[in-house]
Design a protein that fits this description.
The strands form 2 sheets. The chain has a 4-stranded antiparallel β-sheet, with helices on one face. It is 25% helix and 47% strand. The chain is of the alpha+beta class and 110 residues long. A hairpin with a 2-residue loop joins β3 (21-29) and β4. It has helices spanning 39-52, 93-106; strands at 2-8, 11-18, 21-29, 32-36, 56-62, 65-72, 75-80, 89-90. It is built from 2 helices and 8 strands.
Length: 110
């Protein structure tokens, strides 16, 4: 269950309770949700991502889903647009492609 607790720089932050574990998660910021154990941690991460700007570079579209290469603090990884309300993140492009195919197969196609 998630409950909206605040909005920071136009991004909603929610308290999420999953089986008794509580954490905080934001709406998407440049394609990714920001997650933390406190609202202060999430707010700092949102500010940091917005200050850095959008570092996504479109590399491929697979089964109608855009995949981007993201640079964050000198590290590069791959990120998809949301598939069934969830973004897919991996260090290798093939892992993202495989997860997209698996998610589409679970619901009987795309």
């Amino acid at each position: 269950m998630k409950t909206k607790v605040l909005t920071h720089q136009g991004v909603n932050v929610y308290r999420v309770n999953v089986r008794g574990q509580i954490f905080y998660k934001s709406d998407l910021v440049y394609g990714e949700a920001v997650v933390g154990m406190t609202t202060d941690e999430v707010v700092k991460k949102i500010s940091s991502k917005q200050a850095a700007g959008d570092t996504r570079v479109h590399v491929l579209t697979h089964e109608g889903v855009n995949i981007y290469q993201v640079t964050d603090g000198g590290q590069k990884y791959f990120l998809s647009d949301p598939v069934l309300d969830e973004t897919i993140t991996a260090d290798v492009l093939d892992d993202v492609i495989l997860q997209i195919t698996r998610k589409h197969a679970m619901v009987g196609g795309f």
